[in-house]
Structure formats: C-alpha cells, structure tokens
Amino acid sequence: MPRVTRYLRRHVIWLGFLAALIPLVVLLGLQYGWLISLEKTSVLAHQATLNNYLEAVASEVGYYYQGAAERALNVPSAAFTQGCMDRAAPHFETKGVQGAKYLFLLSLYGEDKGKLLFFDPALSSMVIPTDAAAMRAIYVASAPWVVMSKKEESLAHVAVTTDERDPDNRVILNPITDEQSRLVGIAGMVVDPKYFCEAVLPKAIKKSLSAFFSEGDSKNLAVSVRDAKDDVKFETGDCRAGHEEAKKAFTFIFTDWHLALRTHHVNPQEWAQANFALNMGLSLILGVVLLGGMALALRAASREMRLSQMKGDFVSNVSHELRTPLASIRVFGEFLRLGRAATPEKVREYGEYIETESRRLTRLINNILDFSKIESGRKTYQFQAADVNDVVEEILKTFEVRLRDSGFVITLERGPGRLPPAMIDADAIGQALSNLLDNAVKYSSRPGEIRIGLDRQDGWIVISVKDSGIGITKEEQTKIFERFHRVSTGLVHDVKGSGLGLSIVSHIVEAHRGTVTVESEPGRGSVFSIRLPIVDGGTGATETVERPSGEARAPFSAEDSHA
Ligand code: ADP
Known about the structure:
Elements: H1 2-10, H2 12-72, H3 78-81, H4 88-95, E1 100-107, E2 116-120, E3 125-127, H5 132-150, E4 161-163, E5 171-177, E6 183-191, H6 193-212, H7 215-219, E7 221-226, E8 232-235, E9 243-249, E10 258-263, H8 268-337, H9 344-376, E11 384-386, H10 388-402, E12 409-414, E13 422-424, H11 426-442, E14 449-457, E15 460-466, H12 474-477, H13 501-511, E16 515-521, E17 525-533, E18 545-546, E19 552-553
Parallel strand pairs: 12-14
Antiparallel strand pairs: 1-2, 1-6, 2-3, 4-5, 5-6, 7-8, 7-10, 9-10, 11-13, 14-15, 15-17, 16-17, 18-19
Adenosine-5'-diphosphate binds next to helix 11 and helix 13.
C-alpha cells in the first residue's frame, strides 16, 4: 500500500494530466461524431426545405384551379334538365374565372344531348363555339362521361377532373348530376396557359417564398417552370447559374410541367462541409489551447513540487551547515575556558579558528537573509567607486586562516597594470567571491590549488576562481545558478549546502550589470568568472562598457536598487 501511495504521489502530475486529457479526447471524439451527424442532418433539412417549398407552390397552383372550378363550374342541373343552357350565362358571369380561355357547357340530357355551348363574356351569353381545337379537346375529355351517361346509372359522387391530352387546350370538367344523381351535363373550362404563366405562377411562387426562406436566402434562389419538352415557360432570376437542387411536377393541372429550384450560393453539401470544417477546426484549436494551458499549469505545478522538494532539502542542509561551525566554536571556546591553550600561539590559533568559524556562520546567515531579501524584492545595493583589489584581498585573508592546515593553497594572479576603480557594492562583491571560494573548497574531493584571477579585459574587470575539484557536467552548468538547485550525484551527496550560494552570486553580479559564467569539466575542476563593467567613479564620467552581447550601457547610479 505505501508503495502504491508513493507511486501515486510521484506521478500525481501525470495522473492529473491524464485525468484531464482523457475527457478532452472523449469530448473531441463525441464532438466529431456529433458534427458528422449534424452535417448529414443539415443537408437533409436543407433539401427538405427546398422540396417543401416547391410542394407548396405546386399545391397553391392546384388550389387556385380546383377552387375556381368548384366555384364557377357548379352550374344548376336545371340548365340541362329544363333545356335552358342559355340561363347558365349569368352564373358564369358572376362566378367567372380569371385564367379560363373558355367556360363551356356540354349537355348529356334530353333533346339537347351532345350540345356544346361556350360562354362569351363580351356578349354575356352562351354561344356556339368556333374554336375547333378547343371543341375537339372538350369532346375527347368528355368521352368517358358521355359513355357513362348512356348507361343512365346514378352516380353517388362526382368530382372535378382534368384532361390534358391537348397541351394547348387543357380541360377541367365538372360533371353535373340531377336530384336522382343522374349525369345530366358537364360544365367545364379550357385553361388559359398565358394567364397561368403570367399571373397564377408568379403569385404562387412569391406567396410561398416568404413562408420558407428569409429575405437574404430568397435572393439566392431561382425558380423556373419547364414544360414537357423542358422549355422554360417561366423563371425568377437566372435559372442557368448555380446548382439545380430540387424539382417538382404540378399535381392538379399542367401535370407534365415541373418546377425547378436553383441556388446561387454554395450547395447544401458544400455548406455543410464548410460548417463541419469550421466547427471541427474551432474544436481542435480549443483543444490545443486547452492542452497548452494544461501543459503550462502542469509545468508550473511540477516546478512548484520540485521547489518544495528543494526547500525541504534546504532546511535539512542548512541545519547541518549551521551546526558544524557552531560545534567548532563551542569546542575551541571550551579549550580556552579550560586553559588547554598552553602557549600564547595556541590561544591565538584557537581564537582565529573561532573567528573564522563565526565568519563562516555569518556568511551562511547573510546568504539566507540576502536570499529572503531578494525573494521579497527588498534587496538593495550601495554602489560606490571602489578598488576591486582591496575587496579580493580582504576576502582572501579570511580564507587563508580557515584553510591554513587544510592543504588547500590559494594563489592570487593579478593582470599587468593597476585596475581602475569600479562602481560596486563592496560587501556584495565580497559575499559573491566568498560563495565561489566556499564552493571551490567544498567541491574538491582532495585539497589542491585554488587560483584567483584578477584582470582587466576590454571594458570589464574579471574576477575568476579556478579549482581542481569534481567539476560540473554541461547539463548541470545551466541549472546551478537556480535557487535551491544542488547537483544530486557523486560527491555532492556528501557535501552539505543550501543551494543558495550561486543564485545569490548571480543576483549580485546582475545588479552590477555584470555576468557570471562557468567553465567546467567533470573530474577536472571548474572556473567561475565574474565580469564587472569598468566605470570612472571619481568624476562620474563614463567609459563605454562593451558587454559580451556587444550592447553599450550607461553606468548605473550609486543608489541602484534591483528590487
Ligand atoms: P550549495 O553549494 O550550497 O549547494 P550553490 O548555489 O553554491 O549551493 O551551488 C549549487 C550547486 O552547484 C552545488 O550544489 C554544486 O553541486 C555545484 N557547484 C557549485 N560550485 C561548484 C564547484 N566549484 N565545483 C563543483 N560543483 C559546484
């Protein structure tokens, strides 16, 4: 169980990442499926709308002629049974139909049987027809009814019928029955195709358009009506452009003609595909952004975890670092108190040990305090023109005492000529150098030579600390300046430290507009170099500083604060 808990704790970030990733992938998958079905549905829905529209236009045309026929052709049976077909004229006149080429009566009763009269609106009376083609069409259309009337059967139910065998003379017939349901005659109309094209169609097309489409969409539609030979009889808009998307034949009259609908913009498939691509693209972008956000959050979390781990190590390391010099101070103090120092030299020696160890303690505490100031942004520097030589010598003196019997040899190599003064915070630079020297001693597996270099290069004063210690791998060289970072392999395991020294060095040097670099090879030692820009502090005049990047900088003020 503890193994499982440890495993979970170690991999909590990746588990968290997976916990967020899996639902995201599932969501994207569902979205994909949903968009695919939406694409299909929207194509079908679009197609259905177009079909329904044409259906509505065809029905509208049907209603018009059916309604007109039922109204105008409902002639009283008395006109046939009482031999007064002329008396139908006022009926036709009042109920007359627009769109009828002829209104007519054909008697199937008594003496008038077979008599065909047309209504003449100009004379307001029934007249003998002269249009042979129309008459032929009427006789052909009426033939079945004539046969039926000869059988003298009673008809329970009669309805309006059409006959379109002559496309120029389409006939609508209304069989008229008497009280005994006997077929006594036919009232009918020959349809006017011109009126159909010029009045009935435009009205029907326009009426349904607004019911099915928005104003914008209807602008992209073109409706055409074609006859049996596919000749265009009527059209709205350009009926050659775009794609033909729906077709529908008329149902009541003009049944050999059909309506066709074209759209000028993209067709429904293209539209649905474009929609699909857009939605999928947006979903993917969203997914990527989400993953990016998650990756960033996880990186921050893993950093925090690493930092908290480092902080834990820091506390245990620092306690050790504090305890060691304190123990030495106590032991040498006791020696002095108990009078174990027999000679004045011994007294001085123990005193020096106590002093050195307390300086070491001070350095550590200073490091911790400085770190806390840097972290909270309260660290300030007092820049003054100073001789870097003096600062280096001062620090070396304290180290010489500390390392007297350790076998370490510290040598100082100065470049030719006197170094110009530099605008520095002498205490801070001393602290940086101390940290580097401390490390040079700490990370040497056996005592050796530590060489301090002090020289001028172009516009820089260069302080270098070279040791022949354990060295640092290339990979670690980029990380050792991070706070709390400690190399966790080899000898370093046994050497206690806070992981703060180099991060403080780096902060101090950056505050001086300088740089700190490391060159090292594992097993062959390391060289840490601090470069500080040269400034003429006496006059305030500046010497242009050549930075490694080639950038020239103005000098900084004496009270520069790098919060
Ligand atoms: P500390 O020494 O307290 O651990 P530092 O910030 O001074 O912290 O150093 C960070 C790490 O860099 C050290 O833990 C060590 O691994 C490595 N390091 C620093 N100086 C040297 C050196 N001169 N030789 C080898 N390794 C070094």
